[in-house]
Amino acid sequence: MVRKLISSLAMVSAGLLLITYMILNGEKLTALSTQWTDYNSGTAAPIASLKLSEDIVYQYRLKTSDILDATGKYQINILPLPEDVFAKTLKAMKTSQLVIGKQATPLSGSTDESALLAMTNDRKIYLVADNMLKPMMTAIWNEQQRLNRFIYCANQELCQSLRISSPDFGPFEGPFSKSDFIVGRRGLPRGRWARGPVTRLDIQSSKKQEVWLQLNLLAVHRDQKISFRGAVSQAQQTDQPSETVMAAGKSLTSAVHIVLLNLEPGTNTLEISFSIWDKPGSSGKNPVGAYITAIGIYGYKQR
Amino acid sequence: MTFLLNGLVFLLVNTAVALSCWRLSNHLLKDHLSLSLRVVATCILSFAHATVVVLLLGVVFRYLNVWSVSLLSLLASLAILVFCSMRQQQVLQSSRQTLSVLFFGRDYFLYLISALFLLQVILLLLKVTWLPAHIWDVFVYHLPPAVEWYQQGFIPAVLETPVNRINGAPLGMTVLAYWFFIFFRDDFLVELPMLLWALTLVPVSIAVMRQSGVSRAWSLKFAVVIFFIPIVLMQAVTSKDHLGLNVGLIAGLLFLAEFIKTRRYPLLPLAAISFGLVMGYKIAAPIHIVTGIAVFTALLWSRQRTLLTTGQHRQVLYKATALSAICLLVVGGYWYLRNLMVYGRLHGAYDTELSEAGMNLGGDSGAVATALSKFKNLEMLQSNVVEFFPRIFDYQNVYGADLVFISGYGPQFAAFGLLALIVALYAFFNPRLRQQPIFLLSSTVTLLFIALMFVNLNANSYRILSFLPMVLIAYAAVQLNDYQLLDKSWVKGLTNSMIVLCIVWSSVTLLAPQYTNLLRLKEFISLDHSSRTSANFTSWFVRPRPSFYRILDAVPVTEPIAHVTYRKSYFAGEVGDDAWTYLYMDRNWQRKIHGLYLSRYFDCQDNGACTIKPTLTTFLKQNNVSLLSSCKINQCLNIKDPSLIEILPGLYFFLGNR
What we know:
In chain A, a hairpin with a 2-residue loop joins strand 15 and strand 16 (250-263). Helices cover 22% and strands 41% of the residues of chain A. By secondary structure, chain A is of the alpha+beta class. In chain B, the strands form two sheets. A five-stranded mixed sheet of chain B has the order 2-1-5-8-7. Chains A and B meet through helix 1, helix 2, strand 3 and helix 4 of A and helix 20, helix 24, helix 25 and strand 7 of B.
């Protein structure tokens, strides 16, 4: 009798333990739905077909690249071709096309004929011979060089007379693909996070001068107001329509602000205050006011 | 065409090996009726065959390639097929009985469970063949040695590597990975050995339960739910070693338990071969084997004392034991012998400060004393006891067993294993329970689990302890059968439902591939074969990852790559001497990879900014290397030198060769 009771109790306990496990792990089922959504939002790799005249001479599945050009709009893809196919394509470049889906793209060649380029709506595809390393590296390096431009000057003389730095800027980030693994980076263009609520710009000027400073940025909130203090004599936000983009896991609003600066020789300070700021961006620990994508400098009469 | 030819050679050799091992196991087990035991023996002998052939050719003859492997395997298989006899009648009789239970028993739960099992096997097979290696340790030291062996055509005693573990670790599973690479010279099957070990778990579990009197149908059902333990499903699609370690251990214990029950001496060398394989998988394996043999000896003394006391029996036993010891050393002894010969100690280059190619070994005084002292670590035991329930129930998201947030024991252990653990502990004091054949297994794994709680505590530690749920769930089935509970209809219904629920839960929660970007999974699956590489697949942790990983499949395979490696941590998350070497490989293992020990070639500041030493230029020129990676794991040092152009963060092009 006792044995029977213990056995029955054991079975009931086993059932209860199983139920307990499942209740405690219910969230794993929620995670499943996220995983399914992620998987479903992906697409198969498109086939890139290389056509010489009307003949398809090579096909390749194009993957999403983690390397983007300076605008963040174009992915940089490398398509290695067998040596003979590359040589044939180079010869017949004018009649060659790269077809992706229904979109046919003509090819152009680099100056030393070591690589071919096909530029689609969202990709720059470099075609190289599969046994050649240098053309591939050169193509990527050239694209990367353009990434390092953050401050644009109207002319060299102006650039040489100024140095802009900020203790409140984060490191350079991006550009990142929209399908980047890290949610906090997805879709982020090249730029630097500016600390909120206030970011200070230190502008070293070699002479007394008036210059226009243009800030291209992504604001952390649509209603965010930005004000300037310091060496500023006039500030305005351009009236171009702002665009909301999903980037870095946030809804960011593009904006352009222009400030007329009265610069004295030496260090000048410009304080940028953000009416709304947000928790830290993809890197760093400080609250962020905006994501600065470019700083433009123009002479007073140049604008 | 080449693929077809390679496939034919692969099929020919592996079929010959499987058939000869089947013949050998039948020859050894003669009139033994258990079909599952024969299947287990066949699996164990097949793994041992592949291991010994590769080691013999790689280490002794130093002539390792597809032809030498195929030829030696075929010759060995042929010899076994010619010289070993088998009694077809008994095999057929046993098979017929099993099939009649499976197909004509009208047990609809059994049909459902079998169907779910088949579906899961197909899914795992797809994951193994279509998705690449994706686990940290695999990138670091499970596969890189196989690449070296393939490129060098033999197995050197010491590899020129800055990853210390490689020159101390037993690499038995890497040997199997090599076996499954060499026929196609393509890495799409390198994860198959672990899946095969996972599948071996099914007949092992069935044999364990059948040995203790559980019916065929219930044995199969419980064997399937054991197969579905999350940690088994997770590890089945890796190139790691934990499944081989633990399934091999259980198989060895199974043979020993059968020996105690039947006194058939051929079971002893079979157990030794299993333990030999186990020894070849982990440096800590001797602890498992010693525990098993200690319990076996005690049980032998209590149940079959005449074998030890009667002169004639004793002599046969000694001979069988001596033969078993030779088998064990042949299958698993190489790695320890190498360690002794090269490093003068059993654990080779483990726990050394710097052991490049065996140089500069640290002191080794009192290694044994240090190891033994770990078993007195009450603090670790206490922490392990405190963490036991959170781990078992998976409700604290800090654990991982090659899968984040899961310790890996699953709902089946919570339901069946926990209660079985209580009975297993009680069995030490109960003479009736001690008489059950499964007691050898339950007591060994319980003691081993407790012993390892003194020495092993980290977020991933339950993956090495997967022997516990494997045995204890079978133990639960044995006790349910022993108490005749499975005859009651409500218990039958409840148990069947729980088994199905556990199977479905485990299968569904482990459906998505791990450590990859699911947004790009569909894309990855559709990529060309040469692009489905580990570098294109992996995405470890929520941390920046070098973007250049994803262009490596476009880099000519003839271009060697050098990469930095170091013990010091420059960035959070960097571990010891780990370097993700395998990510630089193409699928056919053609690219030459050079590990650069940091202090020899670079001067670096604490922030990871480095300059190069003249030795680097010389090295890169001598080895015709143009590409240099400054990333050890997934963050990269910043190197400044005019001879190195930074193409992408962490990837440098050396101008000196052009």
